[in-house]
Amino acid sequence: MTGPTLYFALVAFGVAVGVGSGLLGVGGGTLIVPFLTLAVGLSQHAAQATSLLVILPTAIAGSLVLRRRGVGDLGLALRLGAVGAVGSILGALLALALPGSTLRLVFAVFIGLVGLRLASDGLRRERGRT
Amino acid sequence: MREAPRDRASLHLRSLLLDPRLLAIGFGGGALSGLLGVGGGVVMVPLLVLWASYRQRDAHAISLGAIIPISLAGIATYGVAGEVRYWQALALAAGSIVGARIGASFLARIDERLLKVIFGTFLVAVAALMGTRG
Q1: How close B24 gets to chain A, by Cα (Å)?
Q2: Are B80 and B106 members of one domain?
Q3: What domain range includes position A60?
Q4: Do the Cβ atoms of B61 and A86 come within 8 Å?
Q5: What is the pTM of this model?
Q6: Which domain holds residue B108?
Q7: Is A28 helix (H, G, I), strand (E, B) or coil?
Q8: ipTM score
Q9: Burial class (CB in 10 A: 0-12, 13-18, 19+), B24
Q10: Which of A48, A56, A115, A126 has the smallest C-beta neighbourhood within 10 Å, fewest atoms?
């Protein structure tokens, strides 16, 4: 895909990701990274990097809405995230040190596990839906 | 800021400084996020609920807020390496913010369990595709 077609597809796929993550609470990354590698043809590293930049504004927008509704504690969240930022830098450096094919395999295993958990969650008998 | 939230916040500050569980959850979620380009909520939310005893709703909100600094750090690290595609991210983000609003308005009317099974199966298929088309 190139030019306007590519950007049209990106916006459309973004809408689908937003709907899906709004419904399931599974973040966009599990969908965006495979889309960017399989459909757009980015390298695994570029797809992951770009995915994070999509997640950031979504997280900001979502956090502002929840804060207005008084859900959670944004102060605690940001401090937790500050600790997480250290982990994130180390994780990204590790990813950058790995060859793309290895990283892609690690990612595949990860979303495979997420998928299995979601499916088994859905199949389990109803218990105290919240 | 009103009084009650501040009290709660200072309580949480103490709990974050003293509670190794929260440190571990934040660090682990961040490491996963940086390594795989995802938010990290997929590990932080269950751990906050099962290990740190937060309610589901609060855990979800805390995880979402934590993703802000976590993703910033990841973007910076990948950005230095020249891996971020800014325009493509902008297009995806514009779509997903619209989509999130649509999704939220459907939330009450949908069979969540069926959706989980469908989406879970779909993810497993995508995983297989990624694993084989290396």
Answers
A1: 9
A2: no
A3: 3-123
A4: no
A5: 0.88
A6: 86-134
A7: coil
A8: 0.90
A9: middle
A10: A126
Number of H-type helices and E-type strands within chain A = 5, 0
How many Cβ contacts (< 8 angstroms) between chains A and B?
407
| A97 touching chain B per CB within 8 A | no
Q: Token digits for A54?
A: 């999509």
Residue A51 maps to a domain: yes
Residue-wise pLDDT tens digits, A97-127: 999 999 999 999 999 999 999 899 888 865 5
What total of structural domains would you count in chain A? 1
Does B61 share its domain with B90? no
Both B100 and B119 in one domain: the answer is: yes
* Domain identity same for B18 and B36: yes
With 70 as the cut, is the pLDDT of residue B6 above it? no
Residue A25 Cα distances to A45, B41, B114, B116, B129, angstroms? 24, 9, 15, 10, 23
Note the helical H segments in A25-99. 29-34, 44-68, 74-97
Judged by CB atoms closer than 8 Å, whether chains meet at B114 and A104 is answered as no
Residue A130 in any domain: the answer is no
Q: Is the pLDDT of residue B76 over 70?
A: yes
The least confident of A107-111, B84-88, B129-133 is B129-133
Q: Does A57 touch chain B (CB under 8 A)?
A: yes
Distance between CA atoms of residues A32 and A29, nearest Å:
5
d(CA B103, CA B91): 18
Residue bearing the bigger pLDDT, B82 or B116 = B82
Q: What is the pLDDT of residues A31-49, one digit of tens each?
A: 999 999 999 999 999 999 9
